[in-house]
């Protein structure tokens, strides 16, 4: 690496570190009855920020209220996908009971439904539906913890991933999300962070969507739990 390139990188690091100083001293509030660090932002603001940042990375965020609203959102998303080459006829879901219950509240017509299919079967499915255990508003990131459900293949292999999350589980930062999860139980063997659809770029920086994972990501945020 040339000295000019090295200095450019170091200058960039210095400028970003300097810009982060005001955020490092930002006041947080702590609930004495529940020792989880809470963001100073309201739940409405966190949902808004999460949606904006998810949209910015190519994801789709739908705000719903309660089970009826989630079922309606699932119906709309999958019905629209069935009119495209993504088909959305074979649905794989995680083993979180809530997902199956919500899906049965829709009036969708599909070819197949499977709960946490194994590796030899999962590649035949068009859509994977899971919940998410937390989300990070500042980056539009989902956090999926395997301690809560078998979701890894369902969330990573089908061309479309639909995630359902309660608005109360949206945190401002990565640190707050990890504190929330660790306070409830030990983290599972696999914690998956998902920020938008899968994307990669070759040596010429040509961006390609959906090579190493889903090409479409939909997140349904349930405000009915607040």
Topology (SSEs and partners):
Layout: H1 3-24, E1 29-31, E2 34-38, H2 43-56, E3 60-64, H3 66-81, E4 90-93, H4 97-103, E5 112-115, E6 127-131, E7 134-136, E8 141-145, H5 152-156, E9 160-166, E10 170-171, H6 174-184, E11 191-194, E12 199-201, E13 207-209, E14 216-222
Parallel strand pairs: 3-14, 4-5, 4-6, 6-9, 7-10, 9-14
Antiparallel strand pairs: 1-2, 7-8, 8-11, 12-13
Name the features.
Rossmann fold; 14 strands
Count of helices?
6
Strand line-up in the sheet with most strands? 3-14-9-6-4-5
Coarse structural class: alpha/beta
- CATH architecture group name: 3-Layer(aba) Sandwich
List how many beta strands DSSP finds.
Answer: 14
CATH H-level homologous superfamily name: NagB/RpiA/CoA transferase-like
Gyration radius over CA: 19 Å
Q: In one word, what is the shape?
A: globular
Q: How many distinct folded domains? A: 1
Low-confidence stretches: 25-38
Kindly state the percentage of residues in helix: 25-40%
- CATH class wording: Alpha Beta
Largest sheet, in brief, is: 6 strands, parallel
Mean pLDDT: 86
